Amino acid sequence: MTQHVLITGANGFVGKAVSRALLQRGDRVTGLVRRPQTTADGVREWVFAANDFEGIDERWPVSLHCDAVIHLAARVHMMRETTADPLAAYRSTNVTGTLRVAAAARRAGARRFVFVSSIKAVAESSSGCPIGEDDTPTPDDPYGISKLEAERALVEYGHKSGLEIVIVRPPLVYGPGVRANFLQLMRAIANGIPLPLGAIGARRSLVFVDNLADALVHCTIDPRAAGQTFHVTDGRDLSVAELARALATQLHAPARLVPVPVGLLRLAGRLTGRSAQIDRLVGELRLDSSHICECLGWYPPHTVEHGLLETAAWYRSTH
């Protein structure tokens, strides 16, 4: 059965992958974006540039009736924060803005709202045991706090309004078009730069963008997803060293990994004021993604190897 899905942030890295996955199913897709002509081919655009979705209820097109919303738009995690009150800024977009979209969509007839949160809403690290959906959340930065608050506000709104809420918490997402730290890692490996990653054995969960997109499609159509929270991963966790070696292979570049002891890396982080970045690099962050498998019968359609191959092929063709 086909459906009409509204995607906020449809022109982003994940948004374009989700759009393609839905279009391949035969679904109709409307992309809510701030700039015109930025979505994937086949997506109907709705350009709405108001900050934090203010006034979206009044501006909702009369002809726009969607079955489900996938909410990707967010104020994302920033390494160098410039706002005087970061938490207030994150709350304005990620909590207040999210609720505005949910309420407007419900009034327009949507039955389901899939909220793409983040594992940062729960924790920055795991300690020997993968993080499950029922673990007590302890976010430690404004971004993670705002995502957790949005989750809780949506659940409450869903109970009051009847809108079916589905929460998805991905870890780091990679694939063609990836930016930020993952792109920097590929660039360094491709350029043959020695990296102090050889002794890092801690494993971290990842998710290939097309695996995440496939999971989000399932979350819009499967009745069993209503009211659920899911962690979504590739199902195989790599250490940073294993990831770097695998990328080097796919990039046809030498893996120049220097086995610097983790203790020295942490010391360097403290001396340079980059402890948070070093902790993310050397610390374990594993997710238990068995719940979506057991609840929906969903399994990642692509292997880690395939995901890294596609990502490296994109990098080699564009850089």
UniProtKB/TrEMBL annotation:
Domain NAD-dependent epimerase/dehydratase stretches: 5-225
Pfam family, one: Epimerase
Recorded coiled-coil stretches: none
CDD domains named among the record's database cross-references: UDP_G4E_4_SDR_e
Name of the protein described by the UniProt record: NAD-dependent dehydratase
Organism this protein belongs to: Paraburkholderia lacunae
